[in-house]
Amino acid sequence: MKPVRKSAHELQYGPLGDLTVEATAYQVVSRRFDFGLDSAICQHLVQRTFAALADEERRRGVQRVPPFTLRLDVKGHSLDVPLVNEPVVRQLVAGTPLAQVQQKLREALFKRLLRRDPSVEMDDVRRMLAPSALLACYGGAPARPARLEQTDDYRMDLRRLRETLSVPEALVPAPQELSDPPAAVVEQIGPVIEQEGRSPESARALISHLQALRQRFCARLDELSPGQLVAVATDLRDRRLALKTRLRAHVPVRLTLYHEAELAALQRLGPRDHKAVDQVLSSRVARLLTEAYCQGGLLSLTLVAMLTQQSPARVGRLVNAFEAAQKLILPTPGTIHDAGSKMTHKALVVRMHLEGKECKQIARQTFHTEEAVDRYVDDFERTLIARAHGLPASLLPRVLKLGAHVVQQYEALIAQHIGDTEQVRIFLRERGIDIDQEAVA
Prior knowledge:
With 441 residues, the chain is mostly helical. It has helices spanning 8-13, 21-33, 40-59, 86-93, 98-116, 122-129, 158-165, 183-194, 200-217, 260-268, 274-294, 301-308, 312-326, 333-337, 343-354, 359-366, 370-388, 396-400, 404-417, 421-430, 437-440, and strands at 69-74, 77-82, 228-235, 250-256, 297-298. The chain is 55% helix and 7% strand.
């Protein structure tokens, strides 16, 4: 039986549905307590324990919110606003346009606010969630920005990123602290776990681990500042790219979607100030990526698009604009695990290699893995050897098993940093690579 082919919507938005505290809980229960990851009993124990913990906290007057729930303050009113949840993901997977889903979310929020304060305006919601919606659309769309100049002087500089984006030094990975679970929850759930052949001590430990997870991933609304939320991010140490999202390691990260100063600046802008709005959004996107990285996590551009009420393509353009303006590399999954076809990152890696820097140093300074650095250097040197032997440019992609655009990028780097074919041969000989003179004659 042939596997069911997933739609493009499911491939893009489906993984968002696996960024939950439950998915991490299933992994913990499976890994630490030897329950089957996909077994019904594993899911039953997690759901029963979470429900019991939530009931106990409500009894004590403690209310937590799920991940991706934004604390939003308007005119003295605080609301919990879910930006990513199961209903939203289900709509996107079913093919509902992203812009339509985001628009419905803003309209629903506006209605909630209006019931509390009739003086609230839709622009109050737009400034916080979707600044681009403030712009006038009549008279034609704004001109598309010119293509950014590709250079090789970009840098990974976490200190500068923190300073540029006002990311505090205190923002670090949250520690996992285990505490004794409430006696009422142990009394209710302990026997259920013990029925599966576990000791009372093991049952208590399982409840304690799930309680710690819930406290880390599900924040109390009063613990968040206005404009903040806790998101589920992929652990940047997890290199298992081929695994499904629900099977990869996740970490909770506290993110700042907006600052009060941003809202004040947006309120002063006119309806046609596209450049200023783009600058605000570019900084907002960069801040989310950097804050997640500082706490040990990585956010996909699709997830950032959901949080900032934009399309993934526009988020990608804002990332490029920020990097070009600041000459800084942002920590994205594409940068950390595989820089894709971005010329700036390949150029930087190759130039540092030509300067004699070690692989570990290059990886540390460019947000890349050592594997990615090795791959770029190896691809570059194979291109050098092919050039030295006079292989026709039309054959290079097939022989080297690289995309045509990648080969063109490497050839541009060769021309910039080494020179013509004869200089390439000299360069290789100096590095101990013998070039057969008869083969190149």
